[in-house]
Design a protein that fits this description.
The protein is α+β, with helices and mostly antiparallel strands. It has one domain: Orthogonal Bundle (Arc Repressor Mutant, subunit A), CATH 1.10.10. The chain contains 4 helices and 3 strands. The chain has a 3-stranded antiparallel β-sheet with strand order 1-3-2. β2 and β3 form a beta hairpin. The protein starts with a helix and ends with a helix. 15% of the residues are buried.
């Protein structure tokens, strides 16, 4: 995993986080953060929620997807 991917996961933490907050806390451009979020979503590590929010997927959610 890249440093930026790890940083984004850490920023999201245990609660849902709005895209604007993730971008602001990462000090990276929106486009770069969106690319990372999409990669993490494809790997079932994060979940996109309505309203521009993101959250970490739980182990249980991850297992149910497979």
């Amino acid at each position: 995993m890249t440093d930026l991917e790890n940083q984004v996961l850490k920023i999201i933490g245990t609660d849902k986080k709005h895209l604007d907050e993730i971008v602001g806390e990462s000090d990276h451009e929106l486009v770069n953060v969106l690319i990372i979020l999409q990669q993490l979503e494809r790997n079932n590590l994060v979940q996109r929620l309505p309203g521009g929010y993101w959250k970490l997927r739980t182990e249980k959610e991850h297992r149910n997807e497979q």
